[in-house]
Amino acid sequence: MRAGHQGTGPGPITPDGCAVELYSRLPAGPEPDIITAAVPAGARILELGSGVGRMTHPLLERGFTVTAVDESAEMLERVRGARTICSPIEELDLGERFDVVLLASFLVHTSDVKVRQALLRTCVRHVAEDGCVLIQREGEDYHTNVPRERVDPSGFTLRIASSEPVGDGVNSVLAEYEFPDATWTQTFRARPLTKEQFEEALAEAGLKVDKYLTEDRIWARAVPVS
To answer: I need a labelling partner for 60 at 20 to 30 A (CA). Which of 35, 99, 163, 217 fits?
Structure first.
């Protein structure tokens, strides 16, 4: 397990505490529609941290060509219809450029600043000059509105049970997923970023926010700085 990360529940669990079976059950939610509205039809998308294909499959159905990257071979085994690449994101160098690079799942909030810098460099390395990078951020109250829970229409409860400081601006978060027949937990470390800190991190990597795609600013579209 990665330091500060762990998971419990049925089935295999990846080094960052993600349960493969859990992520196979989670619905895509509104994200594919947000992405579709923000990028050209039929775009070539590089999806960094695709997991089991929760967003990959709806994007394929919408006519996009997707290259799905994840460090977990067990996750990628669940992906259908996309080119898959098993690799740590921060080390990826395909020698290709894509219309869209997708960095979702709050990966930009990794606790390790050097890893975040490497993730963003990977985005820049693979985005076309006239392309864009779509990034999913934590909500403004992600770490302060705790505990909280949401009952999903599909029948499970997601609970953010706690978010506790562990030093150096990093929090340890405990998430619980309760289904009628199984329960999973995930403990992970995250670095909260204000809007200003987020934009500074992008600028350092050679990106700038072109547009916030949602009113809560959780989704941002960034473009290379010319």
So the answer is: 217
Do β-strands 44-48 and 65-70 pair in parallel, antiparallel, or remain unpaired?
Answer: parallel
What is the distance between the alpha carbons of residues 139 and 131, in angstroms, rounded to a whole number? Answer: 25
- Give the closest residue to 170 by CA, choosing from 113, 218, 217: 113
Structural domain contains residue 171:
no
Q: Is residue 207 part of a domain?
A: yes
pTM exceeds 0.70, yes or no:
yes
The answer, yes or no, to whether the previous bond of 147 is cis (omega within 30 of 0) is yes
32 occurs within a structural domain: yes
The whole domain housing 77 covers 20-139+193-224
User: Which pLDDT does position 226 carry in this prediction?
Assistant: 78
Give the residue-averaged pLDDT of 199-206.
98
Question: Which tokens belong to 116?
Answer: 């975040």
Residue 153 is encoded by which pair of tokens? Answer: 């229409």
What CATH number corresponds to the domain at position 124?
A: 3.40.50.150
Task: Give the other-Cβ count within 10 Å of 149's Cβ.
Answer: 12
**3-state class of 221 per DSSP?**
strand
Q: Residue 158: inside a domain, yes or no?
A: no
